Amino acid sequence: MPDTENRVPNRLIHEKSPYLLQHAYNPVNWYPWEKEAFEKAKTEDKPVFLSIGYSTCHWCHVMERESFEDDEVAQELNRNFIAIKVDKEERPDVDAVYMTVCQALTGSGGWPLTILMTPDQRPFYAGTYFPKHSRYSMPGLMDLLASAAQQWRENRKELLGSGERIAMALRGQTVKKAGRPTKDLLVSARSWFRQTFDRQYGGFGASPKFPSPHNLLFLLQYAMLEKDGDALQMAEKTLRQMYRGGIFDHVGFGFSRYSTDDRWLVPHFEKMLYDNALLTIAYLEAFRITQNDFYRAVAVKTLEYILREMTDENGGFYCAQDADSDGQEGKYYVFTPDEIVSLLGESDGRTFIEYFGMTPGGNFEGKNILNLIGNPDAERPNEAIERLLPKVYEYRLTRTKLHKDDKILTSWNALMITAFADAYRILGDNRYLAAAEKAMRFLQSSLTDEQGGLRVRYRDGEAAGTGGLDDYAFTVWALLSLYDATYDADYLQRAAERNRTMLDRFFDGENGGFYLSASDAEPLIYRPKETYDGAIPSGNSAASLCLIKLAALTGNPVLEEAADQQLRFMAGAAQEFPAGHSFALTAMTAALYPSREIVCVVKNGADFERVRSLLHQKRMPNTTVLVKNAENAEQLAKLAEFTAEYPLGEGRSAYYICQNNACSPPVYDLKELEQKLSQ
User: Fold this and answer.
1) I need a surface site. Which of 264, 561, 601, 659 has the fewest CB within 10 A?
2) How much is the pLDDT for 174?
3) Residue 171: its H or E element
4) Burial class (CB in 10 A: 0-12, 13-18, 19+), 346
5) DSSP code of residue 55
6) For residue range 614-671, what is the model confidence (pLDDT) as tens digits?
7) Other CB atoms closer than 10 Å to residue 163's CB: what's the count?
8) Do 539 and 514 form a contact (C-beta atoms < 8 A)?
9) Cα(618)–Cα(613) distance, rounded to whole angstroms?
10) What is the pLDDT of residue 3?
C-alpha cells in the first residue's frame, strides 16, 4: 500500500468496502457508483471511466500500482473522464451487466474490468487489465485514454451510436426460449465431463483449473441415481487431487481460488469464502456416498479454517483472504527447507520436509508450496505431522501479514451456512449447527432492512445494497438446509417467506427465469438473467433447487407450477452447453427421477431425536422429510396443508412413506422404517 501520510483522500474514503478504501488515496478523483457521478459526467460533458474489481484481486493490485497511483495517469483521467470505482462483490448487478459487455466485445472477461461509457451508462469500450504503457500487443492505459478522449471530442456520434447498439443487444439477451427437462441434458453434461476429464490429476480441461464444486456435486448425484461408477470416479479423483495439491493450504487449511497448473500445485493464492463453502459441501457429499473418512477429514479441516480465520465474533463470515503479502503473491504461504529445520529441529524438520515434498530449489520462485502430490500416504492420518503443523502455523503468522476482506456478504454467508448445516446433519457435531444458526441470526438481525428485505453486505456496523437474486436464492437454500438439519418448522416457514419475496420481486412470470436484480432496484441499462454456473452456481440454478424442494415439501400447487416453469426455462438455457449449467441439472434430477416423501408424526422428544438421527444417517437422493409433532402441527398445516390429515393422537409415533406418487401404510417401528428406507 502507498504512503498516505501526505496525500489528500478522494471520495472513496467515505466508503466501507475494503476494495474502495484501498483506492481512497489514489490521485485519481474516484467516485463510487452513485447518481452524483453520472450527473457530473453530463454536466461536464465527459465520458465515464468505470473500473470494477475486488480487494483480493492480484491484477487489480497490479493495475493500481502501475496506473491508479501514478500522477500522470491520474491527470489524464481527472482531466477528460469521470472515474468510477466499483467493488464487484458489493454491486454484483453492475458487474454482471458490464462483464457481459466485455465478454461480448472481446470474447473474454475478468478483473480488473475496465469500461468506457457515456454519461447515461451506455458502454462503447471494454477490457480488463491494462499496463500504463503499451506492451507487446497489449494496449497501454495512457494510449487508450488519449484515444478515447479524442474520439469523444471528434467522433462522438459514432460512440453514442455504438453504446446504444450494445445496450439494445444486451436487452435482447434476457429472453431465452424455454425447453423441456430431459435426461438427455444430464447425459450430455456427463459426456462432456468425461471427454475433458484429466485422468492423471483430476479436474476438467487444461490449466488454469478451477474447483467448480457444483460440477462435482452433479457428478456425485448422477453417480448415485444412475449407479455410474465412472461419474463417481471422476468426482473422487478430482477431490483427492485437489487436496494433495498446493491449492489446499496444508498448514492453515482451506482452499485457494484456482490452480495455475494441471497438477493443482501452484494456486492463485487468494482464498474465497464461496469456494470453501461449496467444496465443503462436495467433500461431505462424497463422504456420505463412500463413507471414506478421508473426505470427512478434508471437510473438517476446511470448516476449522473458516471458524478460526474467517468468522466474525457476531457470527457472520468474512469474504476472502488476499493472495499477496508485502506486494508479493504467495509470500505468506511458501517456505524453504532451512526455515523448517530451523523452526522444528533437524529430525522433525526432515520429517516435515519429506512429507510435504520440499526441495532446496523449491517449486515456486525458489521456495516451496507445501503439497502431497508425490506422497503415497497423503490420505492417511499422520500423528507426527499433525503434531508439527500448529507450530508451523503459529510461526507463519509471525512472518508477514495477510490482508483479509472482512465484508460480510449475504449470498456467500448463506452458502457457508448451508455447508455448516450439512456438516451437522452428516457428521453430527453440534459446533457446526451452532455456527450455522448463529450466522443465520446475524443475517436476520444485521443484513435485513426494516421492510424485511435482504441487504447485500455488512461491514463496520453498516449494511448496504439492495439484495439481489443470489442473496435470496442462496438464503432460501440455507434455510432449507437448516430445516433438513433440525426439522425445525420455523426454518421451513422462513424459507417459504423468502421464496415468496424472491418470486414477487425477481421472477419473470411471462418468459420464465429470475432477473438478477429486483423489480424495484436501481435501473441499469438492462436486467440480466444469469443462468450459467461459473465460479458459483447461478441464482437461477439455486432458485430452481429451492422451488422444486419447497414444492415437494409443501405440496403447494403455485410453487409446483413455478418450479415447472423455472425448470423449463433452465432446460432451454442449458440446451447449448448443459455442462455449464450443472447445478441446474442437479436440481432437475428431482423432476426426472423417482422421488420419495416421508412424513414423521412423532409423539415425544425422544422419538424425534431417534428418527432425526436415523434420517441423517441415510443417503436418500430425491427425498423430502417433514416432521410433525404437537408443537408445530398448526404451523406445519399452514405451510403444507396436507399434513393436517396426519393424526397426532394415536399414542405412538407413526412414519408415512410415499414413493412414485403412491403412499404406503404407516409404520410404527424405527427398525421397520429403516428397512423400508434401505429398499
Assistant:
1) 561
2) 62
3) helix 156-172
4) exposed
5) T
6) 999 888 889 999 999 999 999 999 999 999 999 987 789 999 999 877 888 999 999 9
7) 22
8) yes
9) 9
10) 56
Contacts of 162 (CB under 8 A, 6+ apart): 124
- In the prediction, which pLDDT does 377 show? 95
Calpha distance 66→323 (Å, rounded)? 18
Produce one character per residue of 624-663: b if its CB has 16 or more CB atoms within 10 Å, e if not: bbbbbbeebeeebeebbeebeebeeeeeebbbbbebeeee
Residues 633-642 pLDDT 10s: 999 999 999 9
Q: How many helices (H) and strands (E) does the chain have?
A: 25, 18
Side chain identity at 301, as an amino acid letter? K
3-state secondary structure (DSSP) of residue 57: coil
**What letter represents residue 242's amino acid?**
M
Nearest to 116 by CA among 144, 154, 79: 144
- Residue 39 DSSP one-character state: H
Collapsing DSSP to helix, strand or coil, 320 comes out as strand
DSSP 197: B
pLDDT of residue 1: 47
Reference 482, options 467, 468, 470, 492; nearest CA is: 492
How far does CA 385 lie from the centroid of its chain? 31
Provide the grid cell at 38.
453520472
Give the pLDDT confidence score for residue 5 in this predicted structure.
64
Size (the chain), residues = 679
Residue with cell 483506492: 23
* Sheet (strand 404-405) strand order: 271-272, 320-321, 404-405
Asked whether 220 and 235 are in contact (CB, 8 A), the reply is yes
Low-confidence residues in the chain, pLDDT < 50: 1
Rounded Cα–Cα distance for residues 573 and 576 (Å): 7
What pLDDT score was predicted for residue 604?
A: 92
Contacts of 380 (CB under 8 A, 6+ apart): none
- Contact (Cβ atoms closer than 8 angstroms) between residue 455 and residue 465: yes
Closest alpha carbon to 212 in 534, 630, 596, 490: 534
Indicate the pairing of strand 328-329 with strand 271-272.
unpaired
Q: Using CA atoms, how far apart are residues 192 and 194, in angstroms rounded to an integer? A: 5
CA separation for the pair 413, 474 (Å, rounded): 9
The pLDDT value recorded for residue 103 is 92
Q: Provide the grid cell at 598.
A: 416421508
DSSP 641: G
Buried b (16+ CB within 10 A) or exposed e, 203-238: bbeebebbbbbbbbbbbbbbbbbbeeeebbebbbbb
Task: Measure the CA–CA gap between 442 and 412, rounded to whole angstroms.
Answer: 13
Which three cell numbers mark 483? 430445516
- H or E element in which residue 663 lies: strand 662-663
Which of 384, 79, 405, 383 has the alpha carbon at shortest distance from 272? 405
Please list, in sequence order, all residues whose beta carbon lies within 8 angstroms of the beta carbon of residue 199, skipping any fewer than 6 positions away. 237
Cell triple for 381: 492420518
Q: Give pLDDT, residue 618.
A: 84
- Cα separation of 372 and 357, whole Å? 7
Task: Give residue 131's Cα distance to chain centre.
Answer: 30
C-alpha grid cell, residue 45: 460533458
Sheet with 123-127, strands from edge to edge, namely 82-87, 48-53, 113-117, 123-127
Any alpha helices (H) in 507-603, and if so which ranges? Answer: 539-554, 557-574, 582-592
Task: Give the separation between CA 243 and CA 124, rounded to whole angstroms.
Answer: 43
Grid cell of 355 as nine digits: 512429507
Give the C-alpha separation, 569 to 548, whole Å.
Answer: 13
454519461: which residue's cell? 119
